[in-house]
Amino acid sequence: TAQKLQTADFQGQLDAIGKSQAVIEFEMDGTIRWANDNFLNTLGYTLNEIKGKHHRMFAEPSYASSPDYAAFWQRLNEGTFDAGEYKRLGKGGKEVWIQASYNPIFDPSGKPYKVVKYATDITAQKELQRQVAENAERERIAAEELQRKVEQLLEVAVAAGQGDLTQAITVDGIDSMGQLATGFREMIRNISQTLE
Fold this sequence. Notes:
Elements: H1 2-20, E1 22-26, E2 32-35, H2 37-43, H3 47-50, H4 61-64, H5 67-77, E3 82-89, E4 95-106, E5 112-121, H6 123-161, H7 176-195
Antiparallel strand pairs: 1-2, 1-5, 3-4, 4-5
Helix pairs in contact: 6-7
């Protein structure tokens, strides 16, 4: 009875993992043995489309042919697990990001005989990170442009304060700094005309 309870417990744990994780199994050479529905849905394939094919079908070609990729499979064959964030390609080349662990499974003699990957789709988080980085870069560029405009207007104002009304105002645009520059140009032109 204790053995049955332990077996049921293990099976229950595996079922729970399968419900929440994308799971795929590989031969030690990278050939796909099986994948659960979560995995198939995440990458957009059916089991028939991937079973018997190599893991490299999910990797960018440049990575799949690299020494790093060969070393990745070598480590798995040595019994070392690998975990991290991975960029993978789904059906039709769709970019998919996963948080995953590749786990060698050992036979009774201690030799790895298959690899099981447990993964979570983090594509949405990666897209959000990309958008945040793009927004931060846009803000940085806008701040640099604003600083440049302020410095240029300040140079002209300092020169005008010292009696030099010949400095060109290169700031333009429809934003508030552009409007300020237009008003400043008008003011300097009016002062220049008055002094003539």
